[in-house]
Design a protein that fits this description.
Layout (H helix, E strand, L loop, with lengths): L11 E3 L5 E3 L3 H21 L4 H21 L4 H11 L3 H17 L7 E2 L4 H26 L4 H25 L4 E2 L1
Antiparallel strand pairs: 1-2, 3-4
Helix pairs in contact: 1-2, 1-5, 2-3, 4-6, 5-6
């Protein structure tokens, strides 16, 4: 099978379960942003490897593949099946919250806005946080048009908080510190 199919040359793309939509359809925008987030997390893992942080990111990347598949599926029943298969549920949200709590134990309390940057790892995680927020906005926009399980938005919201905290932890661990606004 060749990587190029030429089926999208007219500016449309196929969805899971059938149907075609324009490549700028809100559904495509939403899963495209989630795909970009996944790629940015892969880049963040590749710079300044930090085992504990990277171990947290790998299952998140797997989750994001499932979220992308869910968003690319117009059939509501199949969408819920993707969510169940991905194990994105209240327990997974609590897992993200637990990881945030672990980060907080390692950090000074937040007293000011943090200017993104610091170490390469910290800066990459701050970029990932902003891409996550953009993905969240696209999913919220899509949710106004079609039914999307609310756990997807909750997951992305919690994930952006975690990425902020991981960026801070990476900067502390590398000695880069933080610059406040």
């Amino acid at each position: 099978m060749k990587i190029y199919t030429k089926t999208g040359d007219a500016g449309d793309t196929g969805l899971f379960g059938g149907g075609r939509v324009p490549k700028d359809d809100p559904r495509v925008e939403a899963y495209g942003e989630v795909d970009e987030l996944n790629a940015v997390l892969g880049m963040a893992r590749s710079v300044e490897p930090m085992p504990r942080i990277d171990e947290v990111l790998v299952p998140i990347q797997r989750d994001l593949f499932s979220v992308g598949a869910l968003l690319a599926t117009p059939d509501l029943e199949k969408m819920h099946n993707h969510l169940a298969k991905a194990n994105i549920d209240q327990q997974r949200i609590k897992g993200l919250e637990h990881a945030i709590d672990e980060c907080e134990r390692e950090l000074e309390p937040l007293k000011a806005f943090i200017i993104p940057g610091g170490s390469r790892k910290g800066a990459a995680l701050h970029v990932a946080r902003t891409v996550c927020r953009r993905a969240e906005r696209r999913v919220v926009r899509l949710q106004r048009e079609v039914e999307i399980p609310s756990l997807v938005v909750i997951y992305l919201n919690r994930l952006s908080d975690l990425l902020f905290m991981l960026g801070r932890v990476a900067n502390v661990r590398t000695g880069a510190g933080e610059v406040t606004w």
